[in-house]
Amino acid sequence: MFTARDLSEPLTTVRDEHAPEALVVDTTDFQTLPSTQAEELGLLVDALDPVAHPDDWLPSDCPEQLRAYVGPDFTIGLPGDGGVTWTTQTTPPTVFVKNRMEGSPDSFVDFLIAEALVQAGLGVPEQFTGFFRSEYSTLDTVTPLSPADTYQLATALYAAYLGLHTRPIFEAWAETIPALHAAWRDAGERLTPRLSGLTSEVATGETSFAAAAELACNALKHGCDLPTPFGALDTAAYRESGPEYAIVWARKTFEELPD
């Protein structure tokens, strides 16, 4: 199920700097990798350290896949992780390139792998549950969203937080790793046209708030100009205070949204 992936010179440079010795593997597609398959990684890595969080961090009606992830079973990945994801539940960290990426431009796939390596080296949780901790239940109470949309919003907010940490690194690649910088910039340029009408799309119900948050928060890492209310996340205050800022932002945002 897992096959070691050969890395280009730019990706080797990123790995050496941010996640030394990290393993990058090609794998079959998955959303949540159950313990029976996740444990196959034990044949490739030095050690396994399954993550586990208190169940009372989660609202009672949260998606079952999220509850399984925080439980004692060794579980990797969650819906919304995309075609490239990573875990630090292994030593060394592992980056997964799912087969859904086949056919995507090589430069884009390389950027996603590089991003995963950078994130894996930040020393941050691999999922939003470790970021929000018990505040995830608070997020659930301050939003009028469904459990699935609250999950999507939490994922987006954590992506924005990560983007505030990774964006300066991507920007610096203009001088050190120009090919990856060009791929990062190109991805941002492709997102920009989709952002211009986002606020009105939410207001008219054409786009759900959670879907809009996902788009805007992922655009943050590319330095795009974000529409209201998501531009308020692109701030040093969020980078520094994390979940506390996210909760305040969510509360104020939904208080100000029209009924």
Automatic annotation (TrEMBL):
InterPro entries: DUF7089. It comes from the Archaea. Pfam families: DUF7089 (PF23363). This is Uncharacterized protein. It comes from Halocatena salina.
